[in-house]
Amino acid sequence: MDYAIMTGGDVAPMGKEGVTAMHKVFDWANTSRNGFMLVLASNQPEQFDWAINDRLDEMVEFDVPTLEERERLVRQYFDMFVLKPAAEGKR
């Protein structure tokens, strides 16, 4: 296995078996020669099982973008997907 993708929709229905499934992923990672990166994303990280949180080295919080950042994102995507294609004659 080169990679694994699991979502809350995959794990949540497993209940307590979800922790076992995550342990299997961690066990696989210990034998991987490619290195390992686990990315968890949640609006409520405190709801992760303690066994999962205990294995996390670092948590990064992403705040809601400021008004200026949102304007910059809109401008960037407008330029990329509207202005540039229009200038190139694409629809």
TrEMBL record:
GO terms for molecular function: ATP binding; ATP hydrolysis activity; zinc ion binding. Pfam families: AAA (PF00004). GO terms for cellular component: mitochondrion. Gene3D superfamilies: P-loop containing nucleotide triphosphate hydrolases (3.40.50.300). GO terms for biological process: mitochondrion organization. Residues 14-63 form the ATPase AAA-type core domain. Keywords: Coiled coil. InterPro entries: ATPase_AAA_core, P-loop_NTPase. SUPFAM superfamilies: P-loop containing nucleoside triphosphate hydrolases. This is ATPase AAA-type core domain-containing protein. It comes from Mytilus galloprovincialis (Mediterranean mussel).
